[in-house]
Automatic annotation (TrEMBL):
Record keyword Membrane present: yes
Gene Ontology annotations of biological process type: heparan sulfate proteoglycan biosynthetic process
Tagged with keyword Disulfide bond: yes
Highest taxon in the source lineage: Eukaryota
Keywords: Disulfide bond, Glycoprotein, Golgi apparatus, Membrane, Signal-anchor, Transferase, Transmembrane, Transmembrane helix
Subcellular location: Golgi apparatus membrane
Protein name in the entry: Heparin sulfate O-sulfotransferase
The family this protein is said to belong to: Belongs to the sulfotransferase 3 family.
MF (Gene Ontology): heparan sulfate 2-sulfotransferase activity
Binding partners and assembly: Homotrimer.
Length: 352
């Protein structure tokens, strides 16, 4: 074979050498093209993904995490739709004090003119913000707004709702004097009723609008939600809806009179955000913020007059209902001996 090639080489003309050279060049170019195509394929896919927001790769990149890889701790969002004059300022200030240490964000929801109901466009925007604003997670949102049902917006991962309720007459009396004398939180701020020296008792006797029992209609609509009927004072439907939401949609509802117990359960249940709340509540000056500067307790006659109203009876019904649920939650936190926390375990696991 080698000798045969040696004999053929001398008789090959220049044109033959040219053909061989061209064939070699074309073959090398073809092989190089294939290698370059494979090398640039990942870069081409990446460029196409960046240009096309609807591509398959982009969709996979931006979809919400599945249940298998969902990080509950770091995706935690707590929504505190705080009822006015229930001790919410004290609670929220603890959250602000500890947010940097515990690595979470606190965000105040400020609605125009202190309105408690969001417009429909704002409902959608708010739901999307809370759900998709991953840079803020974990987060505690708080504001004076009514309950908003995230499920009707087709949201898979809803926030955890918490709240506090207070005895309705205590809340009304506190708000009445707050508008006149302010509090120790911002003592230099002049309130809109400043200078009005009429006591709550005198207001009730004179049947003035500031002490109208209808002003107690606040906790029911806050738990009821954004439906029009929620804001109709005396609505039986609103009370029933408020109770349903309290049981089914709220992780925990405490009472102002048992703030420490409320903080205690939250820290045990959701330490990712509420770690250290108990100690801070007990040992800092944040446990009794926003104390009304001047508040005269109502007389027995005033109390009896208010308690005869349907509004007080309904608001008190909700308060007692919330208190019952809270006491039940506290009781189930402990074992029957009331000395050790309740525990659970998995057993009889099959197949082995």
């Amino acid at each position: 074979m080698y000798k045969m090639l040696r004999k053929m080489l001398p008789i090959m003309r220049p044109v033959h050498w040219l053909i061989v050279a061209v064939i070699c060049i074309v073959t090398c170019y073809w092989l190089l093209e294939i290698r370059l195509e494979h090398a640039f394929k990942p870069l081409t896919q990446l460029a196409n993904r960046d240009r096309d927001p609807h591509s398959e790769h982009t969709a996979i990149h931006h979809v919400a995490p599945t249940l298998d890889n969902f990080n509950y701790e770091e995706q935690l969002v707590v929504l505190y739709n705080r009822v006015p004059k229930t001790g919410s300022t004290s609670f929220v200030n603890i959250a602000y004090d500890l947010c940097k240490l515990n690595r979470y964000h606190v965000l105040h929801i400020n609605v125009t003119s202190n309105m408690h109901v969001l417009s429909l466009p704002n409902q959608i925007s708010f739901v999307r913000n809370v759900t998709k604003w991953h840079e803020m997670k974990p987060a505690l949102y708080h504001g004076h707004m009514a309950f908003l049902d995230f499920s009707k917006f087709q949201i898979a991962h809803k926030p955890i709702y918490i709240n506090l309720v207070r005895k309705p007459l205590d809340r009304l009396v506190s708000y009445y004097y707050f508008l006149r004398y302010g509090d120790n939180y911002r003592p230099n701020l002049v309130r809109k009723k400043a200078g009005n020296k009429i006591t709550f008792d005198e207001c009730v006797v004179q049947k003035q609008p500031d002490c109208d029992p209808k002003n107690m209609w606040m906790q029911i609509p806050f738990f009821c939600g954004h439906a029009a009927e929620c804001w109709e004072p005396g609505s039986d439907w609103a009370l029933k809806q408020a109770k349903r939401n309290l049981v089914n949609e709220y992780f925990l509802v405490g009472v102002t009179e048992q703030m420490y117990e409320f903080v205690d359960i939250l820290e045990r249940s959701l330490p990712r955000i509420f770690l250290g709340f108990r100690e801070h509540y007990q040992n800092s000056n944040k446990s009794h913020l926003r104390v009304t500067s001047s508040k005269i307790p109502p007389s027995e006659a005033t109390i009896e007059a208010i308690q005869r109203s349907k509004i007080w009876q309904m608001e008190n019904d909700l308060y007692e209902f919330a208190l019952e649920q809270f006491e039940f939650t506290k009781k189930k936190l402990m074992q029957p001996d009331n000395k050790h926390l309740q525990q659970f375990m998995y057993e009889k696991i099959r197949p082995k």
